[in-house]
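A note from the maintainers: we've had questions about how concatenated examples are separated. There is no special marker in the raw files; a new sequence line simply starts the next protein. For clarity in this README we add a label.
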Amino acid sequence: MNSVYNVIIRPVVSERSYDLMEQGKYTFEVARTAPKEEIRDAVEKIFGVHVVKVNTVNVKPKNKRVRMQQGKTRQWKKAIVTLKEGESIEIFANDQQAAE
């Protein structure tokens, strides 16, 4: 991969991801070919935090139907990143305060 910005695609915003933030875990959509080491380096460089652990999940496509047309949702990779105790990512912290 060329750039850290090609590894991290976007943060995942869901109820479950917000619940995990209280435990210091942040969820991102990442490049499907990115290994855990690259994900760790990208999060540390972009957000300036220390990553303790990276868990990845390959999200499988689901069958969908619109009228007579059948298809599938896209396949993507999700990374759950655990940060060092006491650290947080400010982008998420601001969103979480606004939601309360």
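[label: protein 2]
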Amino acid sequence: MGAKLSMKISFRQIDMDDFELCVAARKDAYFCSFGHYDGFDDFINGYRQRVVERLTTLEWFYIHVFVDDQFAGQLEFRSFSPEPETGYVHLIYLKPNFRGLGIAPIIQDYIVSTLSKAGCLRAVLSVSRTNKPALTFYKRHGWQFVRKNPKHDETDFYQLWLPT
């Protein structure tokens, strides 16, 4: 238990020199979500260009998570969505060796704080029904089922009301 307390967790905007970490994170997250890589190549097509464009936009957050200066994970979220005062979380990813160490709640606090400062009252994300560890975490940490995702058979929308 004591080791957890000594971890230094830092959040840094993605540096495009580390883009291969982004693709690796996205690929593993895709597998965790769906249990296969079918469709990943289509999903990743144009990803580099999207990240480059969004890094210059205040409403987008592309963040690498470091634990004791080791790359531990990646976050992708934005402070807008089709619904008013609602941020959208695209990716919360931790490398396998950093899971279960108590880092995810700290990551959620970072996202909540960032979106709150940006004027959001709520956050929404889409999660695969087969990604049991993610679903367990979200339900335990205040996320509530909203509806099935009409654009993707295997995923559902969840929301989290942000503290005001």
